[in-house]
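re the bet — no i am not wrong, look at it urself. input seq straight from the record:
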Amino acid sequence: MTQNIQIAKIAGAHGIKGLVKLAVYLEDARDIESYNPVTDAQGKNYEIKLKNSTGKFWLAEVSGVTDRNKAEELAGTSLFIPRSALPDVEEGDILHADLIGMKVEDTKGNIIGTVRDIKNFGAGDLLDIGNKTMLPLNAQFYDEIDTGKGVFKINEAAEELIAIIKS
């Protein structure tokens, strides 16, 4: 299990007073403030205060950042919280972080890739399973997610989709 969970990423600066554009990966973006302080990959703490949504991003204040130059320095910074800070996952739900690194298995038990990342371009979550292949994270394309064994088992519909992608 992952010890730290990425909950946001600073996309860039906004304006001249130090605001940042923040991509928030929580179900309710406003919850980010309840996890303060959040940390970057090096363990540096940040206090985040959301201002307003711009659609894809949230505008936010970051503690100690008062001008555009400091905000620009934070562009690309991923923000994390300890996994233990999250509420328990409900039955049938899974954290995206738990999917990363899972082996993707076809209906015959062959490993066809590994979940490298999860992307969302607006139409739903896509699993990047390598070899330039993305698979929708949709129940119609998988039979089982076994977190204990670290295996994501796809079904025939997913196999057909992958065949179309590769052709």
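see?? The mean pLDDT is 89. told u. also The chain has two domains: 4-84, 96-166. so pay up
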